[in-house]
């Protein structure tokens, strides 16, 4: 009994193994295709590099202390150049006005302006004008044609006098390496400037002045009247028909009345006494 059971168990195991092997062989021939690989996500492009940092500028207060700028010169941060070279040049230029330093300004002005300054210095007007300066309010900006500009309002006594300069950095601004060129200044500019950008307003006024100067003169026609004497066969004493001064078809002409000529000096004849 025991041997028979063992034989049956062995046969069962053998059949199971054979069946499993057969199934394995059969499965090799009809094995399902593996699932497709999951798509690989593309990497996002790297972000653009950050913009370069804005050029560092030295605060106006530090530059004024560093270069010994006269405190009467006022240049606020929001109206100052965006670079140290421009800031130094503008501060030193107007410091020359506050101190009446003509020698420094001559080295920073264009040729024509330097000549005018020399004449003012010789006449004594320069010393008189600069000795009464109470303050200099400065603002800067850029014009698309002229370039960098500085507009200063000089407070002299109880008056305000504006002046505009274009300037260019030509070297070391701490050693007068900049040139300032005065722009035209029409009359009464202080009362004509308006808006937030006075430099743009200044150039607009100059354009308007130029347009008026180059406009053709207006031709004014003045009506004329012909007072030539004219005799007609049908005229009569008094005003002729057609209105004062002339008849129909001949405006502006007066007709001499008919009748004998009147001697303006009766009783006088040539040679008589």
Task: Quickly describe the structure.
This protein is an alpha+beta fold and 273 residues long. The chain has helices at residues 2-29, 60-67, 84-99, 102-106, 111-123, 125-131, 198-214; strands spanning 73-75, 133-143, 147-156, 159-169, 178-182. A 5-stranded mixed β-sheet has the order 1-2-3-4-5, with helices on both faces.
Fill in the keyword field for this structure.
single chain, alpha+beta, flat, Nuclear Transport Factor 2, Chain: A, 273 residues, five-stranded mixed sheet, disordered C terminus
Detailed description of the structure:
- The chain is α+β, with helices and mostly antiparallel strands.
- The chain has helices spanning 2-29, 60-67, 84-99, 102-106, 111-123, 125-131, 198-214, and strands at residues 73-75, 133-143, 147-156, 159-169, 178-182.
- α2 crosses α3.
- The longest helix is centred in the first third of the chain and has 28 residues, at 2-29.
Strand order of the largest sheet: 1-2-3-4-5
- What is the global morphology? flat
Per CATH, which architecture of the domain at 60-183? Answer: Roll
Order of helices and strands: HHEHHHHEEEEH
Unreliable stretches (pLDDT < 50, length at least 5) are 5-27, 235-257, 264-273
| Major sheet description | 5 strands, mixed
Number of helical stretches of at least 4 residues: 7
**Could you say which structural class the secondary elements and strand pairing correspond to?**
alpha+beta
CATH topology of the domain at 60-183: Nuclear Transport Factor 2, Chain: A
Distance between the termini: 204 Å
Rg of Cα set: 51 Å
Helix content: 25-40%
The number of distinct β-strands equals 5
Strand content: 5-15%
Mean pLDDT: 79
- CATH level 1 name of the domain at 60-183: Alpha Beta
């Amino acid at each position: 009994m025991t041997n028979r059971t063992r034989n049956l168990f062995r046969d069962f195991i053998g059949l199971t193994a054979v069946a499993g092997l057969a199934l394995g062989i059969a499965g090799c021939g009809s094995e399902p295709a593996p699932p497709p690989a999951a798509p690989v996500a593309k990497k996002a492009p790297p972000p653009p590099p950050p913009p370069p940092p804005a050029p560092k500028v030295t605060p106006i207060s530090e530059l004024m202390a560093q270069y010994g700028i006269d405190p009467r010169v006022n240049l606020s941060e929001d109206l100052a150049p965006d670079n140290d070279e421009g800031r130094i040049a503008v501060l030193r230029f107007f410091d020359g006005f506050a101190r009446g330093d003509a020698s420094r300004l001559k080295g920073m002005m264009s040729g024509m302006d330097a000549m005018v300054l020399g004449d003012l210095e010789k006449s004594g007007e320069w010393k008189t004008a600069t000795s009464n300066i109470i303050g200099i309010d400065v603002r800067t900006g850029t014009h698309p044609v002229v370039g960098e500009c500085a507009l200063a309002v000089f407070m002299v006594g109880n008056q305000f006098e504006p002046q505009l300069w274009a300037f260019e950095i030509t070297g070391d601004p701490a050693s007068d390496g900049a040139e300032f060129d005065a722009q035209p200044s029409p009359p009464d500019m202080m009362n004509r400037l308006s808006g937030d950008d006075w430099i743009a307003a200044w150039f607009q006024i100059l354009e308007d002045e130029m347009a008026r100067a180059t406009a053709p003169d207006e031709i004014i026609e003045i009506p004329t009247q012909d007072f030539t004497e004219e005799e007609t066969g049908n005229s009569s004493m008094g005003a002729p028909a057609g209105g004062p001064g002339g008849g129909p078809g001949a405006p502006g002409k007066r007709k001499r009345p008919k009748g004998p000529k009147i001697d303006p000096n009766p009783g006088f004849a040539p040679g008589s006494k």
